[in-house]
Specification:
Number of helices: 9
Strand content: 15-25%
Shape: globular
Number of strands: 11
Strand order of the largest sheet: 3-4-5-8-9-10-11
CATH architecture: Alpha-Beta Barrel
Number of domains: 1
Order of helices and strands: EEEHEHEEEHEHEHEHEHHH
CATH superfamily: NADP-dependent oxidoreductase domain
Structural class: alpha/beta
CATH class: Alpha Beta
Length: about 280
């Protein structure tokens, strides 16, 4: 595949905008930077220069929210983002996450202890070359640590000016409710796609409170370009608070994904993908 010429390039702006936390206005199609690492989300990518090109092309296509985590690599994704995009242009939101640990390719552990989250956040600040992270998300709830303790540390980091807004990820409806009683939550990042709507209850709560819902693994069953675009278009039509972040290590696939921002599905197409929202 070849890159789309700049004059004919799609734009993430066609997806419309969403304001996170009252002051972060972003286009409703972001970029998830997990796949710019090595196999198993471990180590460096096979072609680092290609990863840099993907990130820079994302910005050219109007993407102004990049989502990453300290555990992607670990650290690799954040380092490449800074290499490719720093100094960051005005309006670009870098969202990252902390609370997962890595012991090898495909292996993920949880650590929500305050000391770990502080070290994770401060490490992300250094790698991303930021004085403050616009959106910092608890990557997952640690069953061995009270959620109030984990989020309490993020609140302290926020009061110190190291975090602008707090989000949560991989939460149940009950955990989401608990988080909202502890801190001001501006985003939820849960798995959600046409084939897996297990977080429908959380999505509804986000919609009612006008909190951004960032679905990870948004393509789900979407495999070829046309189906992937329709899947992303379905998500965008599903809820005004939906903010998909499809990731890729390919410029061509990036352009195909961003083109979904301009796709408008018919009622029949929505039904075929799992039913239109009434």
């Amino acid at each position: 595949m070849t890159s789309t010429p700049a004059s004919a390039a799609p734009s993430a702006a066609a997806a419309g905008t969403l304001t996170i936390g009252g002051d972060l206005k972003v286009h409703r199609l972001g970029f998830g930077a997990m796949r710019i690492t090595g196999p198993g989300v471990w180590g460096p990518p096979p072609d680092r220069a290609a990863a840099v090109r993907v990130l820079r092309r994302a910005l050219e296509l109007g993407v102004n929210l990049i989502d990453t985590a300290d555990s992607y690599g670990p650290h690799v994704s954040e380092e490449i983002i800074a290499e490719a995009l720093h100094p960051y242009p005005p309006g670009l939101v870098i969202a990252t996450k902390g609370g997962l640990t890595r012991s090898g390719p495909g292996n993920w552990g949880r650590d929500g202890r305050p000391a770990h989250l502080r070290a994770a956040c401060e490490g992300s600040l250094r790698r991303l070359r930021l004085a403050r992270i616009d959106l910092y998300q608890l990557h997952a709830v640690d069953p061995n640590v009270p959620l109030t303790e984990s989020l309490g540390e993020l609140a302290r980091l926020q009061s110190e000016g190291k975090i602008r807004h707090i989000g949560v990820s991989n939460v149940s409806a009950a955990e989401f409710a608990s988080a909202r009683r502890t801190v001001t939550v501006v985003s939820v990042q849960n798995r959600y796609n046409v084939a897996d709507r297990g977080s429908e209850d959380v999505l509804k709560e986000c919609e009612a409170a006008e909190i951004a819902f960032i679905p990870w693994f948004p393509l789900g069953a979407g495999r070829d370009a046309a189906n992937a675009q329709h899947v992303l278009a379905w998500l965008l039509a599903r809820s005004p608070v939906m903010l998909p972040i499809p990731g890729t290590s390919s410029v061509a696939h990036l352009e195909e994904n961003v083109a979904a921002a301009a796709v408008r599905l018919s009622v029949q197409q929505k039904d075929a993908l799992g039913g239109a929202r009434q």
